[in-house]
Design brief:
The protein contains 7 helices and no strands. By secondary structure, the chain is an all-alpha fold. Belongs to the sigma-70 factor family. ECF subfamily.
Length: about 180
């Protein structure tokens, strides 16, 4: 079910521009964290990603004139920050298929959560970003293209490749249990 994007009022001193930063963060913080968690696969990295992206956005908040562009701007900043981290992460550390942390016990089925994280982690970062925005944030192809700064055709091809990879992985098959 798609989470509704709340209608945010513009800053009255700016003539209907971007909403107040605090208002935006209060309204959209949880959804941004969820997207970041799906991108990073780690609760703490997700918090860092959201905070870093929001810090970058806060510095330029007064320049945003179109309230409709706020969501795309913040999401694009978050995905770009995630991509930058991925490019810079090489420090001798190698990715692994086993996560060292215990799954969150509050989740109804930790096995499914783990399978989704592993399956997403195996996707290239561009495909992962498209899948997260399209299917977890429930954005349209056009909204995803705008958020990532790519064409709608690229969104479609990345989605197709990602879904094929996920189907072939075998991690997300339904069981008879």
């Amino acid at each position: 079910m798609r989470e509704a994007v709340p209608v945010l009022t513009g800053d009255p001193t700016r003539g209907g521009g971007a909403p107040a930063f605090e208002e935006y963060v209060a309204a959209r913080g949880a959804a941004l964290w969820r997207s970041a968690w799906l991108l990073t696969g780690d609760r703490h990295k997700a918090e860092d990603l959201v905070q870093t992206a929001l810090m970058k956005c806060w510095r330029r908040w007064s320049r945003i004139e179109d309230a409709a562009a706020v969501e795309a701007y913040v999401r694009r900043t978050m995905v770009t920050t995630y991509t930058d981290w991925w490019r810079r992460r090489w420090n001798g550390e190698l990715p692994t298929t086993e996560l060292p942390d215990e799954p969150d016990r509050a989740t109804p089925d930790p096995g499914i959560r783990q399978d989704v994280l592993v399956a997403l982690a195996r996707l290239p970062r561009g495909q992962r970003a498209v899948v997260v925005l399209r299917y977890f944030d429930d954005l349209t192809e056009a909204q995803t293209a705008t958020a990532l700064g790519i064409s709608v055709g690229t969104v479609k091809s990345q989605t197709s490749r990602a879904l094929r990879t996920l189907r072939e992985s075998g991690l997300l098959e339904e069981s008879d249990d």
